[in-house]
Amino acid sequence: MNAITINNNNNNRFSLNDSNNYICNLTNTIGDIVNKYNTLLMEYLNFIVDNINEKNSAYSKFIIERGIETITHVFTMLLYYSRNVDMAYYHGQRSFYFYVEFIGQISEDQHTFLNLSSRDAAMFVYKKTIFELSADYRKNLTEPSKDTIEKLDTLNVNINIFKNIIFFTLQEMKITEKNAIIGNLVKHMESMCNKLLKYKFTIQEYNTIENFVSLMSKNVSITKYYELVDQFIQKYSKIKPESANKISDARISEKFTDPLCESKLEESSEKFIKWILA
Predict the structure, then answer these.
(1) Over the range 66-78, which residues count as b (16 or more CB within 10 Å of their CB) and which as e?
(2) Whole-prediction pTM value?
(3) 245 in a domain, yes or no?
(4) Would you say 129 and 90 are in contact if contact means Cβ atoms under 8 Å apart?
(5) What whole-number distance in Å separates Cα of residue 85 and Cα of residue 31?
(6) Could you tell me the sign of the dihedral formed by the alpha carbons of 85, 20, 71, 218, in that order?
(7) How many domains would you assign to the chain?
(8) Are 51 and 2 in contact, with CB atoms under 8 Å apart?
């Protein structure tokens, strides 16, 4: 297994049993928090494609997706309870190392037990991370401030956007090209994360972007899909607030069920997004 560098000197600094590592409210900016999560995801993707050698495409994709769900759960749970983004990130790194290590022990002839095995892997990770949360601190957990709640809500909708894009990529990916595809995905995700934070969207606007990304599951290439998502974010960011309120999720959903949608998709990404937002 290829190694990952986790600084063991942080064991005490990020100990889940030490109440001194827990903070009352999130003091980091939402940009710092989202970037930390995105970095964690990209590290995981690079790590797992280097360490799984499965020839079964469906098996590999399922394992990667289940890992994303597991790591996300660890990161968000620890962030909620500790409000310490560095600690959540540190244990997020540990979680994907534990996950890949566990999965690596499952041989190919055990694919019939895939679902059970991946759940076992997730449980193994949780025992090493979130189950070690300070019991005393959980009992006396203070209610998060309004600012902290807003940051957590913004993180969650960004997580949903990221996962939609990653899962689309995985479904369209040929396993023989996984290293190149994941490498390209990582570059795209870094760029898209920067754009999402640059335009300072509201929660409602983030939800609209999430709705578009989840609906954009048509039969298009990965490259075309990335172009469409980028175009939507850029075009949507330039819409004035009074006009943005008119672009409801229901309205976007109607466009995707419109008989013209397939033919519009054959046009340039810019024209398609212009039609979606019209």
Answers:
(1) bbbebbbbbbbbb
(2) 0.89
(3) no
(4) no
(5) 12
(6) negative
(7) 1
(8) yes
